[in-house]
């Protein structure tokens, strides 16, 4: 009865979902927050008090402004609301300043800017064709997609507990994806260009955007067999795209170019002085590489191949961002990671060019770009996995194969975020939210594809189930053992290495499925 | 989706909300010298762990009864003892005799919150789940979990248990009792109820319906044979659950405490009952002597209880039993002595049980009951969770029961009543619309009063203006609800009879 009423209410369920998650976010206001809270408070203070020319030079706090100019402007706008809450938080010298009003303001600013994300999810849901019309509202693909995006575990804990502004940034990205799916190319390009100047990490997925726009917008027609028709090249479209990108960049970087500060801005944005891995190892290829190095070192010491006195004593996951020397394997330079990333991205881009499959191909390429750069990037944060998980949600509800990959990637990716919240009061929250999201994604996708073969094979199931004992060991058993004093980093190491296996596997599986996919017959039928 | 995965999601969501609320403040946080209920519970742990069992209820040099003396029945004491044992394992300072008074720290808060969380998870939540699965009307598989979602997200209980600080054990046990009775396991049911009673004497609010229902059931089975056997077995159930509660401590001392504690105070704070509300007009406390007050309140309570109880004894039915639980508890809350704001939960939990039968009225009542707790929650700095969970609950009820479309007389179970009035009342056609606008009006009123009490400092000459306003408004609501529930109970079987005839 309730479901019927909800269906009658049309999009009423969407409002209920969005409202529900917003209430949950409000409940999390008193929860723990990380140093990112101070980072953003500092940026509020910098942009509020200093002239533009000082923004990228100010260094009172160690958390200097290292986001592109649009984000600085965003903080500037926020600071003009913040002054009504507590003017003290806008003083640059007030390092680590907190007050109840400050916390409220900062948390609420995240919750309110998330409305853009909610709108973007709404638009994405509209792009999904409702062919698989289900009687039950809970089994509608759009409903499932809305829950997977709005209630995404990673976004909830990273934004609303750990504290960051990813919500509205992902909102911009999803909105641009939705616009591209709706064939409103210029709008999509504009949104993505703006997004790039909010946070430059999205440059990792820029190849997908560039190639897709070039292929589907700049070339207006295909040959009958789906290959490119070179003559259909449209100069007008290229000019329009170029104009948009240049205008947005001019708006963002122009003032600094005039001030002659561009090199300073760039050096702040790309701090290659930081180490290969973040404080917590993101579960990527380099985590495996580092672990291999450690294992070889220990092995070498045991068998006396190595001289123990010459080995630098560096605890790799001590919590500080630092450079790290490998002992056995060759050390990795930024250039090497760049080349690896480039090589990893290349096939997916080629695939997008030569086997265009419309929005689906674009999304696949987007996810592959994000994942490949996550695998091989320099100083990757574990939060960057969201860049792959969120767009993959869009694919997961369309095909059983992608749904299986999504389940592996989302579960391991989200699990790898656990070390972000290390305080005891937040332990139940993160476990409960994770269970909530995981149980939902498994049961809903399973019921959505119940006519097809099982989403996961036995090996994948075993792998995912073993996350439970791993968590129990890391959070409950390990602190009781005597190892805690000598090897405090073991839980982090185990978590990132174990998750790295799953994410690598998901990456390879997705890559193989994309590369081996034939040019669909479906397109010809259309 | 599967029935069980939906239920799992419901429970996980409810648990998440509970833990998120528990991140906030608690009763008496950082307020020496007396602190609040949190300190009371901690103090009981200290007492039960360190003192021999026969000193628990007596004033000794080690046990100052004026400082949060143990004034709940023995089962509470045993529960405190178990908790204290675990506390001792973690940090002995938490329950050290004398020195631990007013102990507050982040780890200790975490421990206390966990004990409530575990109690909730083990007793209250399973009862709710099983109850929702046992509902006969659950034809659609989804309905059980929507019903459970609404019951588990009821903000009043969450805020009091996980915010203010209280254990949901007595209510959970009472729920188990109702559950057992609805499966016709009368003995188990009465045992569970006795346990509830032994946890908290406030459960007496529910005792009359239990008694009347079981008595009526015995009569119905015939005074010969089976009925008598059933009746005869209840004392054994009572005995089965009491002795281990009475084992150590002396019952008379306990009784003494309860009586001295309860008598001679008509009401303490600004409670949404009739005496407090009347005191706006007349200062009853000054006009009538305490003894007359006692008699008066006893008489009024008894009279208000009578119709529902007689009806239940004569025609015992499960449905009537649930409604009687609500109306009797509400009568006690409104008219009896020594009422605490939190006692409204004793009414709310039975109301939760009938939320699938009268979703509109139940939601309304649950919202008002949460609102009546507002002064208490403001004192505990729980405004944020209150302001979040209450609209969330309303939204959940709106989405899952679409309550605004269920305001006709039939949906409110007033069909029989309205038929008997039809000749006299001409405005009957617009009844649903009137009810709906009344609901919206009351919502608006509650919202405005909430905002005022939270944001506006009261005028200097009337410092209690807002709490009093909240109490009076809620009391008026409760009176109407009492009337409504009694009407539903009394006209109930006529409805059935007509159905049978037609």
TrEMBL record, chain A:
Membrane-related topology note: Multi-pass membrane protein
GO biological process per UniProt: protein N-linked glycosylation
Residues annotated as transmembrane: 12-33, 103-121, 142-158, 188-214, 234-259, 335-355, 361-380, 428-449, 461-483, 489-508
One term under GO cellular component: endoplasmic reticulum membrane
E.C. code: 2.4.1.-
Class of this enzyme: transferase
GO terms assigned for molecular function: dolichyl pyrophosphate Glc1Man9GlcNAc2 alpha-1,3-glucosyltransferase activity
Location in the cell: Endoplasmic reticulum membrane
Pfam family for this entry, one: Alg6_Alg8
Pathway(s) this gene product operates in, as recorded in its UniProt entry: Protein modification; protein glycosylation
Domain of life: Eukaryota
Keywords: Endoplasmic reticulum, Glycosyltransferase, Membrane, Transferase, Transmembrane, Transmembrane helix
PANTHER family: DOLICHYL GLYCOSYLTRANSFERASE (PTHR12413), DOLICHYL PYROPHOSPHATE GLC1MAN9GLCNAC2 ALPHA-1,3-GLUCOSYLTRANSFERASE-RELATED (PTHR12413:SF2)
Family from the record: Belongs to the ALG6/ALG8 glucosyltransferase family.
UniProt protein name: Alpha-1,3-glucosyltransferase
Organism of derivation: Setophaga kirtlandii (Kirtland's warbler)
Lineage, top ranks: Eukaryota, Metazoa, Chordata, Craniata, Vertebrata
Automatic annotation (TrEMBL), chain B:
Claim: Transferase is one of the keywords in the record: yes
Name recorded for this polypeptide: Alpha-1,3-glucosyltransferase
GO CC terms in record: endoplasmic reticulum membrane
Membrane topology term: Multi-pass membrane protein
Record-listed E.C. numbers: 2.4.1.-
Residues passing through the membrane, by range: 110-133, 145-167, 173-197, 227-246, 252-282, 294-314, 320-337, 344-371, 383-404, 438-456, 468-491
Location relative to the cell: Endoplasmic reticulum membrane
Pathway: Protein modification; protein glycosylation
Reaction(s) catalysed (UniProt annotation): an alpha-D-Man-(1->2)-alpha-D-Man-(1->2)-alpha-D-Man-(1->3)-[alpha-D-Man-(1->2)-alpha-D-Man-(1->3)-[alpha-D-Man-(1->2)-alpha-D-Man-(1->6)]-alpha-D-Man-(1->6)]-beta-D-Man-(1->4)-beta-D-GlcNAc-(1->4)-alpha-D-GlcNAc-diphospho-di-trans,poly-cis-dolichol + a di-trans,poly-cis-dolichyl beta-D-glucosyl phosphate = an alpha-D-Glc-(1->3)-alpha-D-Man-(1->2)-alpha-D-Man-(1->2)-alpha-D-Man-(1->3)-[alpha-D-Man-(1->2)-alpha-D-Man-(1->3)-[alpha-D-Man-(1->2)-alpha-D-Man-(1->6)]-alpha-D-Man-(1->6)]-beta-D-Man-(1->4)-beta-D-GlcNAc-(1->4)-alpha-D-GlcNAc-diphospho-di-trans,poly-cis-dolichol + a di-trans,poly-cis-dolichyl phosphate + H(+)
Organism this protein belongs to: Setophaga kirtlandii
Pfam family, one: Alg6_Alg8
UniProt keyword annotations, A-Z: Endoplasmic reticulum, Glycosyltransferase, Membrane, Signal, Transferase, Transmembrane, Transmembrane helix
EC category name: transferase
Its biological purpose: Dolichyl pyrophosphate Man9GlcNAc2 alpha-1,3-glucosyltransferase that operates in the biosynthetic pathway of dolichol-linked oligosaccharides, the glycan precursors employed in protein asparagine (N)-glycosylation. The assembly of dolichol-linked oligosaccharides begins on the cytosolic side of the endoplasmic reticulum membrane and finishes in its lumen. The sequential addition of sugars to dolichol pyrophosphate produces dolichol-linked oligosaccharides containing fourteen sugars, including two GlcNAcs, nine mannoses and three glucoses.
GO molecular function, one term: dolichyl pyrophosphate Man9GlcNAc2 alpha-1,3-glucosyltransferase activity
The keyword Cell inner membrane belongs to this UniProt entry's keyword annotation: no
InterPro entries: Glyco_trans_ALG6/ALG8
Signal sequence coordinates: 1-24
Family: Belongs to the ALG6/ALG8 glucosyltransferase family.
């Amino acid at each position: 009865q309730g479901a019927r009423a909800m269906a009658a209410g049309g999009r009423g369920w969407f409002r209920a979902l969005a409202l529900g998650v917003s209430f949950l976010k409000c409940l999390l206001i008193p929860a723990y927050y990380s140093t990112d809270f101070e980072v953003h408070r500092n940026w509020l203070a910098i942009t509020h008090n200093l002239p533009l020319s000082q923004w990228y030079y100010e260094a009172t706090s160690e958390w200097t402004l290292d986001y592109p100019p649009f984000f600085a402007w965003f903080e500037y706008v926020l600071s003009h609301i913040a002054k009504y809450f507590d003017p003290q938080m806008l003083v640059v010298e007030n390092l680590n300043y907190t007050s109840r009003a400050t916390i409220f303001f900062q948390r609420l600013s995240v919750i309110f800017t998330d409305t853009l994300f909610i709108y973007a999810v709404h638009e994405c849901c509209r792009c999904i064709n409702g062919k698989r019309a289900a009687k039950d509202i809970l089994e509608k693909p759009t409903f499932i997609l809305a829950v997977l995006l709005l209630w995404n575990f990673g976004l909830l804990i990273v934004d609303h507990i750990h504290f960051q502004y990813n919500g509205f940034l992902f909102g911009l990205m999803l909105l641009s994806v939705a616009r591209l799916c709706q064939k409103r190319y210029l709008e999509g390009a504009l949104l993505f260009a703006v997004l790039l100047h909010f946070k430059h990490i999205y440059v990792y997925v820029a190849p997908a955007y560039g190639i897709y726009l070039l292929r589907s917008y700049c070339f207006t027609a295909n040959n009958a067999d789906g290959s490119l028709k070179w003559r259909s090249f449209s100069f007008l479209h290229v000019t329009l795209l170029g104009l948009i990108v240049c205008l947005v960049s001019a708006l963002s970087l122009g003032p600094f170019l005039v001030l002659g500060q561009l090199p300073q801005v760039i050096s702040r944005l790309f701090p290659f002085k930081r180490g290969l891995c973040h404080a917590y190892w993101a579960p990527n290829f380099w985590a495996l590489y580092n672990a291999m190095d450690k294992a070889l070192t220990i092995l070498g010491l045991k068998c006396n191949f190595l001289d123990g006195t010459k080995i630098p004593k560096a605890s790799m996951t001590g919590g500080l961002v630092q450079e790290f020397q490998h002992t056995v394997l060759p050390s990795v330079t930024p250039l090497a990671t760049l080349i690896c990333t480039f090589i990893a991205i290349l096939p997916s881009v080629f695939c997008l060019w030569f086997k265009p499959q419309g929005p689906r191909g674009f999304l696949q390429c987007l996810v592959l770009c994000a994942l490949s750069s996550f695998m091989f990037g320099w100083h990757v944060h574990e939060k960057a996995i969201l860049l792959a998980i969120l767009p993959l949600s869009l694919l997961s509800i369309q095909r059983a194969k992608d749904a299986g990959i999504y389940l592996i990637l989302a579960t391991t990716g989200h699990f790898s975020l656990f070390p972000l919240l290390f305080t005891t009061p937040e332990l139940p929250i993160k476990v409960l939210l994770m269970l909530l999201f995981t149980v939902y994604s498994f049961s809903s996708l399973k019921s959505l594809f119940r006519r097809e073969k099982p989403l996961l094979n036995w090996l994948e199931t075993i792998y995912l189930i073993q996350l439970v004992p791993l968590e129990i060991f890391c959070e409950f058993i390990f602190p009781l053992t005597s190892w805690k004093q000598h090897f405090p980093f073991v839980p982090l190491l185990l978590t990132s290495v174990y998750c790295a296996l799953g994410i690598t596997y998901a990456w390879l599986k997705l890559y193989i499925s994309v590369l081996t996919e034939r040019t669909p017959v479906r397109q010809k039928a259309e | 989706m599967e029935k069980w995965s939906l239920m799992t999601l419901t429970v996980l969501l409810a648990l998440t909300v509970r833990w998120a609320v528990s991140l906030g403040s608690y009763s008496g946080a950082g307020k020496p010298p007396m602190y609040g209920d949190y300190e009371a519970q901690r103090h009981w742990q200290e007492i039960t762990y360190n003192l021999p069992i026969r000193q628990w209820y007596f004033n000794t040099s080690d046990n100052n009864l004026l400082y949060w003396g143990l004034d709940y029945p023995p089962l509470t004491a045993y529960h405190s003892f178990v908790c204290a044992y675990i506390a001792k394992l973690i940090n002995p300072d938490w329950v050290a005799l004398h020195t631990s008074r007013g102990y507050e720290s982040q780890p200790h808060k975490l421990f206390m919150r966990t004990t409530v969380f575990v109690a909730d998870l083990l007793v209250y939540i399973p009862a709710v789940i099983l109850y929702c699965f046992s509902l006969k009307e659950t034809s659609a598989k989804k309905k059980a979990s929507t019903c459970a979602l609404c019951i588990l997200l009821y903000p009043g209980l969450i805020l009091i248990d996980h915010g203010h600080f209280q254990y949901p054990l007595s209510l959970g046990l009472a729920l188990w009792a109702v559950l057992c009775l609805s499966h016709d396991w009368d003995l188990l049911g009465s045992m569970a109820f006795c346990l509830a009673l032994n946890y908290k004497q406030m459960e007496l609010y529910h005792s009359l319906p239990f008694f009347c229902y079981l008595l009526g059931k015995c009569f119905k089975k015939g005074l010969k044979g089976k009925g008598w056997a059933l009746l005869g077995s209840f004392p054994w159930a009572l005995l089965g659950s009491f002795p281990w509660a009475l084992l150590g401590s002396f019952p008379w001392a306990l009784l003494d405490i309860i009586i001295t504690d309860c008598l001679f105070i008509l009401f303490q704070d600004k409670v949404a009952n009739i005496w407090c509300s009347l005191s706006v007009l007349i200062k009853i406390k000054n006009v009538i002597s305490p003894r007359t007050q006692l008699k008066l309140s006893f008489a009024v309570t008894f009279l208000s209880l009578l119709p529902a109880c007689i009806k239940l004894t004569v025609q015992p039915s499960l449905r009537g039993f649930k409604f009687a639980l609500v109306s009797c508890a509400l009568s006690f809350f409104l008219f009896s002595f020594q009422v605490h704001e939190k006692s409204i939960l004793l009414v709310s939990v039975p109301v939760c049980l009938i939320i699938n039968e009268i979703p509109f009225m139940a939601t309304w009542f649950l919202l008002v009951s949460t609102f009546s707790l507002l002064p208490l929650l403001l004192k505990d700095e729980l405004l944020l969770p209150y302001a979040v969970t209450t609209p969330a609950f309303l939204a959940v009820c709106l989405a899952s029961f679409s309550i605004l479309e269920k305001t006709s007389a039939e949906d409110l179970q007033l069909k029989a009543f309205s038929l008997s009035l039809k000749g006299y009342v001409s405005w009957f056609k617009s009844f649903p619309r009137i009810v709906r606008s009344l609901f919206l009006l009351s919502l608006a009123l509650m919202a405005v009063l909430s905002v005022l009490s939270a944001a506006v400092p009261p005028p200097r000459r009337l410092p209690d203006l807002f709490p009093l306003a909240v109490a009076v408004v809620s009391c008026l609501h409760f009176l109407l609800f009492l009337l409504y529930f009694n009407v539903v109970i009394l006209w109930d079987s006529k409805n059935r009879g007509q159905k049978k005839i037609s």
